[in-house]
Amino acid sequence: MIAAAAPPLPHQSDVPPVALQAASRAGKVRGTNEDAVWAGRSKAGPLLIVADGMGGLERGEVASRLALEAVRSSLSRAGGLLQPVVPPKRLLEAVHAAQRSVRDASASAPGTMGTTLTVAWVVGRTAWIAHVGDSRAYLVRAGRVTQLTDDHTWVARQVRQGRLAPGEAGRHRFRNVLLQAIGTDETADVDLLRVPLTKGDRLVLTSDGVTGVLPADTFDGWCLQDDAHGITTGMLDAADELGSPDNASVAVATVNTSLPAGGERPSEGERVRLKVGGARLDAGAAARAFGMGRPAGVTASQVARSAVRHTTPSRAGWWAAGALAVLLAALVWWRLAAP
After folding, report:
1. Which of 42, 208, 234, 260 has the least CB density, counted as fewest CB within 10 Å?
2. For residue range 172-186, what is the model confidence (pLDDT) as tens digits?
3. Cα(104)–Cα(260) distance, integer angstroms
4. What residue ranges define each of the domains in the chain, with the CATH number in brackets?
5. Per-residue b/e over 136-155, b at no fewer than 16 CB within 10 Å?
């Protein structure tokens, strides 16, 4: 488990534009904490990560740590005057790196290794969210708590399709069955979304050890607390008091002042689902899906369907390449033979 230490509350004059907090606990039942959580800063802006490992024994802890470190390493170097940031592209590349890292580790040991992964990266005035699994990201704005991400679980899909009532999902025997996770299959579907931020906004990322235990009104009450440090400790204390059968993690980013402009100004509400893993990643698809270089007339869904392109050339491609090679050789021979 990795957690950013909670610093003392600063004086008003020292308040950063975005204040960060993170904490994690093993809970009352499990002896090992398989969650990994981070709240820190990259060159481009603040970064929150929550990963909830699966697989049993210590392998879940390994998977969550590998995914977190892959994302943090990838994004920590992004930015600077000589390296303009295209956030969705870099974020998709980071999740792809996490997928490959966990898959490689799983291939070298018996059994299946996997983890959820939810990332919030603040670049300029925009929060970019990447999400796989059933950890969650929330936006707290003007006294309202809004869930930004969809759970990639069997019960959540049944609820969305109208086959299961929301109240039944939390008690269903298949409530912990994940449809998407980092590392369990060759590829994984990742949701990317962007959220324009303003002063007073707060991002809250949690593992299901928090949201699966706390009643909705209790959870919302803690999200609305003024003290960000109190949110992390308060949520984990409340989960412990309710028995906390799972590991529990919280990461919080609070916007204290107006943010500087940076990157492209987004339109609200757009999200896409792309794939990571596989033979080759077209990271530019993420940028095009959000209008950053998307060709005119091409929709986000069309871009999403072409996110991963396999590199095996067709037979026609081989013939074309061969013909071109022969033509170039003939041209070279002709120039050398010319008087």
Report:
1. 260
2. 888 878 899 999 999
3. 39
4. 12-337 (3.60.40.10)
5. bbbbbbeeebeebbbbbbbb
